[in-house]
Structures are given as structure tokens and as C-alpha cells.
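Minutes, project check-in
Item: structure for the 189-residue chain
Input as provided by the requester:
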Amino acid sequence: MRIPADEVNSTIQNAQRKHTYTVWGIPPDHIVQRIKKIMEPLRAEFGGPEIEPHITAVGSVLLTHDYVVKQFINGCENIEPYTCEVDQVVTRKFYYQPVTLLFHPCPWVGHFGGYLHRCNAHMPHLSLLYGNLTEEERKRALEKVTELDDSIASLKFTISHLVLYKTHNEARDQHSWEKVLEYNLRQRN
């Protein structure tokens, strides 16, 4: 059976089409539960979609599917589980980061980001809330974070699980984002 040329061309074009991807570090379960105890009251008071706690390790990159999968695996194979330590709790005007935990930069971020052609200036962060908040709302939300967990600014834990997602920048929640691949980091000898 011969495949029509237009179907072959369409398949090739789809394989070469670029999409937006991001890499998340997934905190251990006990940390996820602790963070959700902050996220849920924030969302109840300020609105916004439900989000799964994650550290954005590599922000949006525009790459082909085959290439990003290959590079994600290469990057994961070359780093070990790493320590994340909160640097500060901040507010921002950006929809995806109105109240955010910023983490101390760690060398693996630049190393891993290089596999996906992303500069190493990226600051790992964990958003506690999504939404368009006013300056006053961001200030109140920041105060509420401290009320809910007064030691969150000294949080420290190990990331050993990374996930590659295909994202849709126009989406205002995570429901349309597609999990592409997961990887459990291992200690190297």
C-alpha cells in the first residue's frame, strides 16, 4: 500500500512543528501538602484556578517535540537530585506569579536549561497563586502567606522528579497543558 504524498508531507510537517514546553520540578509529597495548605486559602480569598505545586525549572521554550524529548532525557541523565531552598517570597504583576516562592539559583538550572537552549538567568520559582491581582491584593496575599506558614521563607527540600510539559500560553490554568514525559533523577556514582 502506497501512502499519498500529502499525508507523508503532513506527518513530516507535524513532526517539525514547534510547540511551547516547560520543565517542572515536583516537590516531595509532604512538601506538596504543606504548599497546598497555603494555596487553597489564597485561592479561596483571591480567586484563580487550582494549580499543582511545582517549581518552574525551565521556563517556556519553543522547540519541536522530538528534539525537546531527546534534550529533556539528556538533561535528566546528567543531573542528580538537587536541593531547593527558598530565597524569598515575592509578589509580581505577572498572571502566573502574583505570589511566588523564589528559590536560590542552583548550578543545575543553567546546566539543564542549556540542553533546551534556555539561558541560565532563569530563577526557579513556585507560584502559590495564579491571577491578576491589584497591588493591594498582592500585599494582602503576601501577608496571608506568612500567617498561614510563618516558616515558608526558610523551606528547603530535595527535588528528584522532573516533568516535561507541553504548554499553551493562552491558557489561564493547567487543564490544557499536556504531560509529555516524567523522569526520576538518580544519584550518579
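Outcome recorded: Helices lie at 5-16, 29-46, 65-77, 107-115, 135-148.
No further action items on this chain.
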